[in-house]
Amino acid sequence: MKKIVFLTMIISFFCLSCKRVDETKILTTCDEKSINNFLWFQEIKNGKTECTIYKGATLYMFFPDDSTSAAKETLFLLENPAASLGTCLSVLYNCSGKVKSLLGEDRTKFLEAHTNGKIIWQKD
């Protein structure tokens, strides 16, 4: 029960601390002007992966070279809270779409180390 409460607090803090930003200004770190230019993201949105994206799914972008960030490269975190498969619940991508699933302690450590996330897409 303590783990659930702790995880809920971290998620709440994370969601409240992130702000939606103009993606045309920030995606230049990946040499793109829009998240829609990423083939890996289009495949996710269009249901061409094993993950089903549910309402409320959110894509966060974490910037490199920020004094509050442990990131050395631009990273994208897809939070899909209604996913029934663990592999689709919390997935980390780099600009080229390389995947690393984040579950449990790995996810918690990532969120503690990366505090500069910005919401760049959310499924209505």
Produce a short descriptive summary.
By secondary structure, this protein is α+β, with helices and mostly antiparallel strands. The chain has 5 helices and 5 strands. The chain has helices at residues 2-17, 23-26, 39-45, 86-89, 104-113, and strands spanning 58-62, 75-79, 90-94, 99-101, 117-122.
Number of strands: 5
- Give the uncertain stretches in residue-range form: 5-9, 12-25
Radius of gyration over C-alpha positions, nearest whole angstrom:
14 Å
Helix/strand/pairing class, anyone?
Answer: alpha+beta
Summarize the amount of helix as a percent range: 25-40%
If helices are DSSP runs of H or I spanning 4 or more residues, what is the number of helices? 5
Give a written overview of the molecule:
With 124 residues, this protein is an alpha+beta fold. 33% of the residues lie in helices and 19% in strands. It has helices at residues 2-17, 23-26, 39-45, 86-89, 104-113, and strands at residues 58-62, 75-79, 90-94, 99-101, 117-122. Strands 4-3-2-1-5 form a 5-stranded antiparallel sheet. The longest helix is centred in the N-terminal third of the chain and has 16 residues, at 2-17.
